[in-house]
Amino acid sequence: SIDQLGSFPGDDLQQLVVRLLVDLLAVAATRGQTVTRLAAMLRELAPKVPPAMRAFLEVTQSLIEGRPQDSVSQLREVIARFNDPEALYYAGRHFAHLGAIDDAISNLARAVEGGYFCYPAFMGDAWLENVRGRPAFEQIVRRAEERHHAAVKVFLAEDGDRLLGVQTPTGDAA
Questions:
Q1: What is the CA radius of gyration of the chain?
Q2: Measuring CA to CA, which residue among 5, 23, 26 is closest to residue 14?
Q3: Are 114 and 79 a contacting pair, CB within 8 Å?
Q4: d(CA 108, CA 85)
């Protein structure tokens, strides 16, 4: 429950909030009747999270409440203070979803160069549809694919799959 959020350590709380945001956005996109409840949940959650995460909640709330331009401008402010590659990816997908193509491309490129190159995410993320087929995006995806396959190759060469007890899909075997 939201009341339990104060008991999570900082990093765990941030991970929980990010996961919650992703889930909230997915629900909001598919169930228009839940928008009022989601907005109320976000307002309730906001005081219980660190200020940086609160800013992301405000971006999400603007989107859920049907204020896409507010969401874009808020995200521009928030992301200017971040260098975390995964956060940049999520910002890029958010911008793409809202049609802020230049912002999307810029943040997705920064994400890949910063170390977030989860090629399957780039390929399967429906929120990136507005940028697919654009040369700049396709170049970013190619770079993510190259870096992804290089990482898989090193992972397998160092017996990472055996050490962690995981199966690596044969298509990822670089």
A1: 18
A2: 5
A3: no
A4: 9
d(CA 159, CA 134): 37
Tokens 């889930």 locate to 23
* Ranges of residues in the chain whose predicted pLDDT is under 70: 1-35, 169-174
Give me the DSSP letters along the chain. Answer: -GGGGGGS-HHHHHHHHHHHHHHHHHHHHH-GGGHHHHHHHHHHHGGGS-HHHHHHHHHHHHHHTT-HHHHHHHHHHHHTT---HHHHHHHHHHHHHTT-HHHHHHHHHHHHHHT---HHHHHH-GGGTTTTT-HHHHHHHHHHHHHHHHHHHHHHHTTHHHHHT-PPPGGG--
pTM of the full structure: 0.75
Question: How many residues are recorded in the chain?
Answer: 174
Using an 8 Å Cβ cutoff, are 105 and 132 in contact?
no
